[in-house]
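Message: I would value a second opinion on how I read folds in token form. Give me a protein, with the fold worked out from its sequence. Write it directly below this note and I will take it from there.
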Amino acid sequence: MIETILSVLVAILSIALIVVVLMQDGKDQGLGALAGNADSYMNKTGKSGKNLAAASTKWIAAAWLILVLAMSCVQA
């Protein structure tokens, strides 16, 4: 039961982490350059949006790491 809950939470956090990372601007404009869109969502939100995205990435990644470690302990 607990393994199923942890697996679902890890999957949700994995998707959230992917989305947050892809929304951030890279050196080459990330996925916006692939779509031909020079303006990304983060360009329109300004610097506070970039700070929020960076902080979100750190917190989601930390939560993902903790859940993965908890899952490995439960299965052992």
Summary: The CA atoms of residues 38 and 64 lie 31 Å apart.
